[in-house]
Write a structure and sequence with these properties.
276 residues; alpha/beta; elongated; 51% helix
Length: 276
């Protein structure tokens, strides 16, 4: 805990901005409104009713408190969610029982398209572990669903080093992603074995070339095991049922069948209790 001589006044919450001095664990002083704190937090309400002074000393760092007060003050815009500092903010929200913070975080991490239709969770791996740690089970399921289908570039694996994460869980999630990739890839190879039978018009050499042409698509599905990835990269697979529907009867039906099967699995909400 800092001494009074070490204190620095917050520029965003200057002296006399409110009727209460809040001192962070690292010596930054925030001037804030007692009424706002009492309204949003039963813990703060009790603390302020018991105490008679005009100063509240907290153990949280100034970054977390700055984010928290920006979120609680109706006259200010909330700070953008930063996955590198969000754990401190959520920790303060849990300690002081401020549900609004969790609702704001979940809303900010929920990705939507231009029609506001739900399409996924941003920073899914970090969101998954934070949601599980803080007991937000429903949001943890949404994040886990995204973990299993998101591009590997969106998993923020380096960021996880900041958290206490069971590496067995990471290994298990990696295995589940690999299983998703394998199912998608099996559809491709099983289809090719069924359709491209070597004949006079389709030689074994042509069949081998067709197999080689699937490699770029297979690599994409390993990086992003989802139907969205399959559809987005489908033009690099010459043997796709869509492009061959005129030559091979029932190919379009095959394609739609794959889509239905894969999307049903992707959209199911997975259980999360086993991970926490």
């Amino acid at each position: 805990m800092s001494s009074p001589t070490d204190h620095v006044q917050s520029k965003e919450f200057p002296e006399n901005y409110g009727d209460l001095r809040i001192v962070s664990g690292d010596g930054v002083v925030f001037s804030f409104h007692r009424m706002f704190l009492s309204h949003v937090s039963p813990v703060f309400k009790d603390m302020l009713e018991i105490g008679t002074g005009q100063e509240l000393r907290l153990t949280e760092g100034s970054t977390a408190l700055d984010q928290l007060l920006h979120l609680l003050d109706p006259a200010k815009n909330p700070r953008p969610v930063d996955i590198n500092t969000i754990e401190g903010l959520l920790g303060a929200a849990e300690k002081y029982q401020i549900e609004r913070v969790f609702e704001y975080w979940e809303n900010q991490m929920t990705a939507r398209d231009t029609t506001m239709k739900f399409i996924g969770v941003r920073h899914p791996m970090v969101s998954f572990f934070l949601a599980g740690h803080f007991g937000r089970n429903e949001f943890a399921s949404l994040a886990l669903r995204e973990v299993l289908r998101a591009p590997d570039t969106e998993l923020d694996l380096p960021t996880l080093r900041r958290f206490t994460v069971d590496h067995k869980v990471i290994t298990q999630l990696t295995r589940l992603r690999q299983e998703r990739s394998r199912k998608l890839i099996d559809h491709i190879y099983n289809h090719q074995k069924t359709i491209f039978i070597p004949t006079d018009c389709c030689t074994r050499q042509a069949l081998l070339m067709m197999g080689a042409n699937t490699i770029p698509l297979v690599l994409q599905l390993i990086k992003e095991p989802s139907w969205n990835s399959f559809e987005r990269n489908i033009d690099i697979w010459p043997g796709c049922p869509v492009y061959n529907s005129g030559h091979h009867k029932g190919s379009r039906v095959t394609f739609e069948s794959w889509k239905k099967e894969i999307l049903e699995e992707e959209m199911a909400l997975p259980e999360t209790a086993q991970y926490f």
